[in-house]
Amino acid sequence: MQQQLLKLLPMLRRFAYSLTGSMADADDLVQSTIEKILSKGLPDEVELAKWAFRVCRNIWIDEYRARKVRLVAAQDPELQEEQSMDSSAQIDQKNTLNQVNAAMQALPDDQRSILALVAVQGFSYKEVSESLDIPLGTVMSRLSRARTSLITLIKGQQGGLVA
Amino acid sequence: MKVTDQQLSAFLDAELPEAEMQAIRDLVADDDSLALRLAELAEVNEWVVDHARQIDQQPVPQAIKQLLATDNKVVQLSLWQKCQQQFSQHTALAAGVALCFGLILGQTSEDSQLLPQPHLNTALANVLDHAGSGEMVELSEGINMTPRLSFVSHAGQYCRQYRVQMQTLQNDSIACYGADGWQLSASTYHDASLQNGEYKTASHNALLDSVIDQLIVGQALNQQQERQAIAQSWVAQKP
Question: Could you say which of A97, A144, A148 has the minimum Cβ distance to residue B51?
């Protein structure tokens, strides 16, 4: 099982980072997820990947979501290390990624999980439905709401920057 | 036909029936505003993927690597047992413990299962017999043992979690008192030197914690209950 989890590790980290918006929290969440899977085992007839994402999302909802302090600190501009060698394109990209991070954090929990599974992991709606135990129609509607919310939030921030 | 964001979103993921996919394809080809909206929805995917991939640049923490390494498991107790048999032949306790740890390192237990319980070494058993939780006992120079928690198991036995600490290695175990004395139920080890400077808030002993969850009935013993158990030599009272 360790070897299978090792293969899943990059995907799990991206998923956890999408959920938490903090690299330290993401790795902490991944560590807790792996520990839980290793100690509790895998239920019968369940795919490890789907199970791992579900465990990760559940631990995040139960334990990590309330921990905003580290995230707030990480977003404090005074704590951000700016590289003086950054080109303007890199700075633009960094700004966009910071905006995406902030917008992701503003999404409701399930919308964020579903968006991360579809966009980042390439899951089909059926796979998301099975992984998160959510009806297929709900996956479709929440994903659409997540996308439109992100557009509104990010375009709003970009408009605010321009104004 | 009015196309909603939900339909466009599902179209983007090719999750609509083929007839509906084709209808929207035709509409997008003729309607610039619809094409623009589709492009905006597609851009969200790029943002989210770019955002998520940032963590790829961050090295995987050592604690996670260690969890997934095949040499970090619940220790095979058969190995521990063999080791303890050799251990008892050594007059110097430190050498024996070092030998055990040396043998255990690098071994694997593919399914992390709990294996049959061996008897506990006399020196370790002696500490469990008499020391209260939190009381550190020096087994030998540089090797300390601390009982950490006592509880009653579903089998009606008293069980104790304890830690044996060496300079760079730490062993955490659970032993339960049965008809043949203290028997090991589970044992984990880790390289204590890897903790230095490592970001780590999640319990590195989750494997052992889950064993306690499976064994324990009610709460852990309080100090008074533990003293009473010590006084009655850990022989559980029949209800």
Answer: A97
Nearest to B102 by CA among B138, B68, B62, B75: B75
Residues of B in contact with A104 (CB under 8 A): 48, 51
- Lowest-pLDDT choice from A49-53, B83-87, B208-212: B83-87
Question: Which ipTM score applies to this complex?
Answer: 0.77
How are beta strands B158-165 and B143-152 bridged, if at all?
antiparallel
| Residues B68, A124: C-beta atoms closer than 8 Å | no
CB contacts of B47 in chain A (<8 Å) are: 96-97, 100, 150, 154
pLDDT band at residue B206, thresholds of 50, 70 and 90?
low
Please name each of the domains of chain A with its CATH number: 2-162 (1.20.140.160)
Enumerate the domain spans of chain B.
Answer: 5-57, 63-231
Look at residue A97 and tell me whether its pLDDT is greater than 90. no
Position with higher pLDDT, A86 vs B25: B25
The Cα B85–Cα B121 span in angstroms is: 8
Looking at chain A from residue 20 to 39, which residues have their Cβ under 8 Å from any Cβ of chain B?
23-24, 26-28, 30-32, 34-36, 38-39
SS3 B175: strand
